[in-house]
C-alpha cells in the first residue's frame, strides 16, 4: 500500500509539473513574482538570476546575470566547452516586448583532464545578459523575468546535466538606476573585464597541415607579452589540448596552433574567431584567411601560459615567494616611517617610556605588540583572500573603503586620545603601584591591542616594496600569501620588538618621573589629529553626514569624561556612571546612523581628489585621449591614503607640473579609490599592485604605460611628461 501511495503522489507531482509552464506564463503576464525567485540549488551548483542595477527604466537595456556558485571539484563550461561537456544555455520566458540578448562570456579557465582540454568556470561566476525593456513598461510595476538555465556540471569523473528555473522581479522606474546592492558591482566588474574587440588585425593561414595565427595592432603594438593563448569560439577548429607555441614581434605576435579534426576535414572557413588571451589582457579577434601579417615575429619566443587560470592563483616558484617575502619585510620596516603610522608611534613611545627600566615588562610588551600585529595581519589577509576567492575585487586598505569602518576608527582614535590626555583611565587607574596615571592599559593586553590598532591604521599607506609584495601575494596560493602578509607584519613590529628586547638601549631612556605624564599628554595630539583626519575622509565618502559623526564624537567624549569623573569619585560617582552610560548609548546610536549614511557621488570625489584640472579615470577615457594623440597621466588615489595626498601636494599641484602638462598637451585622469571601485581594483591588479598610490603615464603609440615611482617629486613628473611629449 505504501508503494502504491508513493506512486500516486509521484504521478500527481508529474502531472502538476507538466501543467506548470502555462500557469507560470499566466503569472508572468499578471506581473506576479515567479515561484523560482531567489537561489536555486542542486547537490553540485547553486544558481540565481540577479540584476546589475536596482531597477530598469522604460525603453532601456537592463543587465541581469546568471550567478553560478559551483561546488568545489566541479565546473561548468564556456561558449566553446573544449573537448567535453557542454556550454551553459538559457531558455527565456518573458512578457511581450521584453527581449534578451546573448550571454557576455567572461574569460574561461583552461581545465586539463588527462589528454583533454576543456574551457569553463569553477567557484563563483557571473554570466551577464542584456534585456531590452520596452518603452511601454510602466514605472511602479515590475518585469517578471523567468529563465531555465541548462548547465553541464562536471568533475574529473562524471558530468551531470542540471536544469534550474530562475526568476527575478525587476522593478521599473524612471531615471538612471544605481547598482544593485547585492551583486551589482560584481556584475559590472565582469562586464568591464570581459574580452571585447580592441582594433586588433588578425590573419589565419592553414597550409601543409599547419595553422598559423598572426595578430597585430591595437594593444599589441609595441607591447611585449610573455605568453598568449587563443580560445576559438567554435569547437573542432584546433586541437584544444595541444600546446600553442608563439613568437612576438614589434607590432604583435604569431601563434602556431595544432589544427583540429574539423579543420583538417573541412578546411579553414573564414573568419577564425575567438579570444586572444595574454598576460597583458584578453580581446576578441576575427582572423580572415590570408598571409601572415608583418611585424608579428622577430623579438623572441612566448609561451602559452599553460596552467594559468584566469580566476585562480597562478603558480609561484620558490624564488618568487622568497622575493615577495623579502620585499614584504622591507616594506613593513619602511611603513614605520610613513605618515599614517605616526599616531601609533606616539602610543609606542608612551609604552616604551613607561617600561624602559623594567626589562621583563618591556620584553612582555614587545612580544605582545608583535602578537597583536601578526594576528591582525592574519585576520585582514584572510578576509581579503576569502573575499577575493568569492569573486570580490578588493585590495590593500579595503576596510577603509567602508564609511562605517572609517567612522568607527575616528571615534576609536578620539577615545585613545582622551585616554592619553588623562580624561579617563583603563586598567590600574590612579593608584597603580608605582606607575601613577600612566597605567592606562593593562600590561600585555594594552600592548596587544596597540599592535592591532597599528595594523588597522597602517592600511592607508603603501610603502615602497609593499606594492610588489602584496600584488604578488594576492596571486599566490593562500599559505604563501598569508606568509607574505606575516612578513609585512614582522617588518612593521620589528623596530619596537628589537628595542624592547635590548636592555642596553632601554637603559639610556630617562628614569620615570613627572615628565612621563607630560609626554603622554603631548602624545595625545597626534591621536586627535588622526581622529580629525579620519573624520575628513568620512566626509569625503558620504553625502552630508559629517554632522552625525561629529555628534557621535561629542557624545562619546562626554561619556568618557563622565566615566573619568566616576573613577575619580572612588565609588561615589554612581550618578556620573549612569549619565556616562546614557551618553555612550547616544554616541552609539549616532555612530550607527553615520555608518549607514548615503555615499557621495564618485564624480565629485574624483574631482576633489586632484589639484590639477582632471577627469574621472576610465579605460574608455584613456583610449579616447590616446586616439587624439595626447599623453595621459593617471593618478590612482584615495582620500585615506596619506602618501597619495603628500604626493599630490608636493608633485601634482605645482605651477611647473601644470606647465609641463599644458606643454605636453596631456590629459590628467584620477581614479578615486576612496570608496570601493572594482574597475580600479582590476586595473591595479593588472599592473601588479594591490593598493594605491599608482601613477601611470601613457604615451600615444605605446600600449604599455610607464609606471612612475610611488614617492613622487616635481622633477620626476615634469621629466616624465617631457619624455612623453617627444
- How much is the radius of gyration in Å? 30 Å
Mean pLDDT, as a whole number?
A: 77
What is the percent of helical residues?
40-55%
Count the E strands: 25
Strand percentage lies at 15-25%
Low-confidence stretches: 1-35, 308-316, 427-441, 601-610
End-to-end distance, in Å?
Answer: 91 Å
Structural class comes to alpha+beta
Largest sheet: 9 strands, mixed
Number of helices: 20
Shape: globular
Keywords:
726 residues, alpha+beta, 25 strands, globular
Describe this structure in words.
With 726 residues, this protein is α+β, with helices and mostly antiparallel strands. Mean pLDDT is 77; it is low at 1-35, 308-316, 427-441 and 601-610. Strands 12, 13, 14, 15, 16, 17, 18, 19 and 20 form a nine-stranded mixed β-sheet that branches. Strands 1-2-3-9-6 form a five-stranded antiparallel β-sheet.
Offer a concise description of the structure.
Strands 12, 13, 14, 15, 16, 17, 18, 19 and 20 form a nine-stranded mixed beta sheet that branches.
Write the SSE topology.
Blueprint (H helix, E strand, L loop, with lengths): L1 H29 L9 E2 L3 E7 L9 E10 L5 E7 L6 E5 L5 E2 L8 E5 L2 E6 L2 E9 L9 E13 L4 E13 L12 H10 L2 E2 L3 E7 L2 E7 L11 E5 L12 E4 L3 E6 L3 H6 L5 E7 L2 E9 L11 E2 L15 H18 L6 H14 L3 H31 L13 H18 L22 H16 L7 H8 L4 H23 L2 H5 L6 H28 L4 H23 L5 H22 L6 H7 L6 E2 L2 H9 L4 E6 L4 H9 L4 H9 L3 E6 L5 H9 L7 E5 L7 E2 L6 H12 L1
Helix pairs in contact: 4-9, 4-10, 5-8, 5-12, 6-8, 6-10, 7-12, 7-13, 7-14, 9-10, 13-14, 18-20
